[in-house]
């Protein structure tokens, strides 16, 4: 395929993509990260490129403005704030979806010239605990391994990582390794996730108990003679102290079992597997990081690999997988408030002086800034009076999301730059339209330290501009234009590379000084390259022979005493709420939520609870539940699932108030954070539940727009020709006239007479907005006596359809589909294969494994993201078959 080679803008796998001359999107078979494979989100990228909902022009106070007017006003506001209150009254909050060049300019402007370190990133919610753990153990934020280790491991331990859904392309490599070399897979997760379907062992430990599990493993390794004592002696310090603390707190299988609530035989089986398998790879992600003790959890894992010398060699080591496309690049430039630049920190006076001289920035910051949770608290209490938020949506993604919204509403100056309208952009005084994926050039760094190019293949719509350009223009208006005189991203990259190598000489892990002399042509054609890239050294894997970035070159073992969860449960709130991602959505859905087929797998938010808890609360699938924590309340539809244990709950983190009345799940999560990393505890909120009666159900089809605050539950998704909204009500329906007024408002036609057919005796109501003989939208509501409501898939083709002039004739088609069959959710969204279709081929004996399901239905034969769910459906079918009575049994007994 000819065309443009670029990189996917979703997770940290960093998949290569080729854009054909006809606009077709495909995986790049020559990119080492993915070898041509894409997940379903990546494969659907072409469906996100429409400009219908893009931010196209600068806005001030809700009115269109020129770029000069908007930037001049923003610069004046920042300058006045700094003059009156000092540089620490200003903050930037940026994003792992920035390109490295964007990140570099924003960080340089804030830390080098404004003179404050109050720039933090949404990667604080993602990878900060890993950064802190790496620095404590290795002396630098370095992932030692490479993706080939996933192919070459004999044991892969997924700790707090549902890679099957969150990093599906890498997970396919694990499945291939299992098929070719017999790689064994262990999953450590409180929930039974999709990754567990491929696992040889699942450890459903108690939420928050990972430190105890890995501390116990360290003790087991010592007691079973599985240590590499020579490696420990040559390349590390602190082992005896770390082991002593582990022995005190997790010195026996029984103690670990008590802390983790795991069966002792499961713990011993895992420990034995790890001790006896040299090629052991521990893959960890948000289940480890998003914790008030996340840094200790990371170090507990690193301790086990350091103790066995299993690091920096093929098929072994600790491997952190990042959640965002350029979380690693942001860490490289210093995008976190606790970093300076180029892996240099504020704890080193010589580093501060080095950066000052390189940037020629006499006002360079000299101390760390506020981390994300503290930063928004400072906005709330007025210490920060001006904030620029770029490429992220904290009103949805942050913990205590309602408090973040309130903080921004009271802030004197809020600047937002983004591609689409979001819950955050609605609070902006100055709104700047940003160029998005496919529209700007730069680099990103993936989870294995590999730098890849993102290349433009389409023009930005309207007046959208790259983020780096906005920050450079702001610097010029604030008086520092000579230090930000960049004409193109290549200029920025060369400076970034030069800073990484400046006075380095092997002292710092991050070094791409060998790329500082790239010509524009070389930058344009830059092939994926893994750092370090320096004239004197380049190595794929790190630390096999020591060479750590500490003062003495040795790794540090870190004692990790278990810590309690930030919130305790009790009679008032006896349950634990866990949050996380689902397969086909991305962050707050501003991109992925616009694609109908990506909504087909999970159409609305849900609250997952165990079957026993569902029985305790007397709720069935789809019933409404009110969930309450100390921080907020939401109403969600219940889903009984054996994936969660009794006493635990799970809700996805993606839905915002634009997509559901439940709003951001971040409203329910507290701000308690790890004292070292500042990463908040997003997976262990104390909660209580109360069921709500469902007195009526509804379906709204019409123009695409959020419904806003309502006294009923709603969730919307895009469909051809508009949107569909599922409705559920716990209060009685209003009187007919009030219901007509509500219908008109929901259909975007207040005061307009609607066509309606209302059967008040049965509790069935149908309203339609028809203009020029075509159906613009319809609302169908049914009380319990009139269920079911016609299904969405049967009604969507009606949008825009012509109807004859007679009023009742217009409703003939709707009347004919009153008994429409229940729709089945899509398991394979690539090929639109439903759960019902897959269950059918299993039930009639045509498929007994995923390959056979694929041969019959096509499911699993495209991106492979649904393969774990095919395994789950097969497993469930086997369980049901075992429970089903044998019809021949009575005859046999009679004999």
Structure notes:
There is one protein chain. It is built from 31 helices and 36 strands. By secondary structure, it is α/β, with parallel strands linked by helices. Strand 32 (755-759) and strand 33 form a beta hairpin. The chain starts with a strand and ends with a helix. It folds into 6 domains: 3-48, N-terminal domain of TfIIb; 59-124 and 329-476, Rossmann fold, CATH 3.40.50.740; 128-320, Dimethylsulfoxide Reductase, domain 2; 575-692, Beta Barrel (Barwin-like endoglucanases), CATH 2.40.40.20; 696-816, no CATH class; 826-883, Arc Repressor Mutant, subunit A (Orthogonal Bundle). Mean pLDDT is 93; it is low at 816-821 and 888-895.
Question: Order of strands across the biggest sheet?
Answer: 5-4-18-17-16-6-7
Poorly predicted residue ranges:
816-821, 888-895
In DSSP terms (H or I, runs of 4 or more residues), the helix count works out at 31
Question: The CATH topology of the largest domain, please?
Answer: Rossmann fold
- Mean pLDDT, to the nearest integer, reads 93
